[in-house]
Amino acid sequence: MWSDVLLLHPELTAGLWLGVEWDNPERGKHDGSHDGVQFFTCRHPKGGSFVRPGKVSFGVDYLTAVEQKYVYDTEKNYIEWEGWSSKLSIQMLTSVLLGGCEVHGPGLDGQIRKTTPQVKWLDLSKTLMSRWEDVASVTRQLDHLEGLQLSSNRLRLSSEPSAHGEAFLRLKTLALNSCDLTWPQILECAPMWPQLEVLSVEGNNITELQRPEGVLQTLKTLSLCENPLNQDTLLQIAALPRLEELNLSKTGLTELRFEDAAPGSVTAMFPALRNLYLDHNSISEWSVVDELAKLPSLLKLSCLSNRLASKDGNPQTATQLLIAKMGRLVVLNRCEIHPDERRGAELDYLKMFGEEWLKAGGGRQPDSQFTHQHPRYLTLIDKYGAPEEGELKKPEEFALKNELLKILFVFPEDADRKSIEKKLPASMVIQKVKGLLYRLLKIPAVELKLTYTSPKMEGTEFEIDNDLKSLRFYSIEDGDRVLVRWS
Questions:
Q1: 8 A C-beta contact, residue 256 and residue 291
Q2: How far is CA 335 from the centre of its chain?
Q3: pLDDT tens-digit profile of 261-293?
Q4: What is the pTM of this model?
Q5: Is the Cα dihedral 461, 466, 467, 472 positive or negative?
Q6: Which of 119, 136, 322, 336 counts the highest number of beta carbons within 10 A?
Q7: Kind and range of the H or E element at 393?
Q8: Which residues contact 359 (CB under 8 A, 6 or more apart)?
Q9: CA distances (Å), 398 to each of 6, 351, 451, in order?
Q10: Mapped to the 3 state alphabet, what secondary structure does 23-81 carry?
Q11: Contacts of 404 (CB under 8 A, 6+ apart)
């Protein structure tokens, strides 16, 4: 028989029933059946470990944790915290960081409001908080609270979530990462957060999304990163009226469709969405990019570590295609798109698919298949004019080995210096071009200033002002002249 009452470790057990052989024989003996008490439900359905009560920490209340974390020296009148000190008193703290401090509840009623009345940001991640009622008992006493970190906790759902709305009345930012939550559970809790603007629920158990009815309508930022989403349910959140930023990285996303809008038109979905993160997914079809171009407000997109590839296999070409297909983007993969970069990408796009356009009938009404695959092509023709037949590039011409450009370097401010003709790969970056010129001219690269002219636009000089970009980026073509000056 057990000499002590044994507990189950909450981090390791999941739904494990504990049968106890009691000293009182009238209570019966453990016979292997599930007649005991279920103390914990956790992630694993079978694994668990027994822990003696003396080995278990039952935590401390909020006020005790604050006193342990922030040491106040009454003689010197300043706070010490993990090697940091300030002449502020505890009552003036605007941020309280108690992550990992084993807080289990509020402590004496009303004392939090007296002790830390100015708190705007509170970190209670990795604590022993187990009920939303306990969290509300703390936050109800923080009248200025705007941000709350509750990640890595297991919080039992409240029976009346709306009853706690007053406790989170001013809350704008909430983090519930790694809390083993489903989307329906989040919606069940949402009435507690009437003014929430930023919600992070990364690394949970979110699969099926449901439409938020009457909740989360003030939300501006939502991170669903690292959740195994069913992508067919993604549009359930597309009607959130104020959602400006959405993180869907590491969700297994492969496709996205806005069937309410024809190719090249604007969808009614995600009307306010400006920033979208799709990194580390399995997107491989360019049709997904065309669908993203339907989003009316999208300005920033990050889609790193996906499977989008151009025909030549060159990552730089793939970046150009993304820019050309999405006319409203100003930031791609966290890098600003400069006007010259957009111009070069769009001109190359016209040339790259010019032959397909001609085969599809050319003119203003190519066949529907071409329009479906290249919904921006006619818009680019309106912007730059139709590509001439001599400018059209066949797919094999994009292979790196065939992209040698004959360039004439001229020196307009040095009449005695002869022009130099070189064949250079279109992928060569300007930094290396300047290195070549240094070897030829013995003039430091930092002093060189480059522009170029094209026979197609006589009298116009185009600046070459970014050493990390390639000749292709600037749309420099075979037979163009590069003008070299130095200070």
A1: yes
A2: 14
A3: 999 999 999 999 999 999 999 999 999 999 999
A4: 0.74
A5: negative
A6: 119
A7: none
A8: none
A9: 70, 11, 24
A10: CCHHHCCCCCCCCCEECCCCCCCCCCCEECHHHCCCCEEHHHHHHHHCEEECCCCEEEE
A11: 423, 424, 425, 426
